Predict the structure.
Amino acid sequence: MHPPRRPHKPWLNLRCNTPSIRPFLHLSKVKEEQRQKEINSRVFQPEIAKTQEQHPSQSRQPTVPLLSKGVEDLYLLLAVAPPRRSPFSSAILAKTLPAGVKVSNLPKYDGTGDPQEHLDKFYAKIDWYDLSDAAYCKVFRTTLSKRALAWFNQLPIRTISSLEQLTQYFLHHFFMNKRVPRTAPFLFTIHQKENDPLRDYMQRFVEVVHEVPHVNHELLASIIQQNLSPGRFNESIAGKPPSIMEDLLMRSQKYIRIEEWNASNSSLSGKRKGQEEEKESKKKEERKHLPPTGFAYYTPLNASREEILVLAEQQGLISQWPTKMKYNPKRLKSNKYCRFHRDRGHMTKECHHLKNEIKKLI
């Protein structure tokens, strides 16, 4: 009697006809073990050698640690640096500068100045090169330093995908550093100080005017007239107010030249006056050391020297009149007059030459 036949199982034929995957699984496992050994020998060999030097009695067979499943541990085991972290998108990072293009002399921003001013300077430099927005983004990063660079590096990864987005983030973060423009009322505080030259005041005033947007030129004339010290330039503005700023500056140049010319002459006059006073002081000092001139004793008179001079002149007793005194510009302004010398500078009663002449007549 024959045994019962087993039911037909079609998957058995499939199993028999399909090549076995066990050899491939075994091969994959072998490759994985070889790769693990290679990693361990590359990463841990220096540490093993150091341990064997310190403990030669221990076995030279290293203990293979298990590979961590974490990505950071895998990079550590492979001794390979993780990919660079960047706020730029992959599309921006993939772009490169055209061959032969070298961007230099770009403005720098450390996070303390006006961000809009830095952007304007950056565009003024980079627009010459006609680059793509992605290149603009990568070049803009090179202009950042210190606080600004620290801000850029802490941006979330892959969050910047366009130049517009980058500039918006930049302006928004550093908006507190943005310079606030001056207003027209601030111009009323720019006064000309005492002894402040007109040139210095006009330069200071014009610098502030450039910081005031859309200022009325007719208003500038009234502001300057109010802030100027009394003088010819102020009177000129009051007589004919300038209609534009250029007219105001041109007219100020005339009075600046006049003021500086007068100051130069005053300086020269003061220098000459100082030299003359120094010269006169030296002469007085020299006279102190000269031997006394004239007589040691003078007879008391019963009349004044002026009266005696008149009588002596009428009677022809004076044989020789004194020589003319040396020129001295101070004497021209003196109210003192000597009839004996017939010149200004001292009184007749104070004249030493007349005193000696009268002594001779006696």
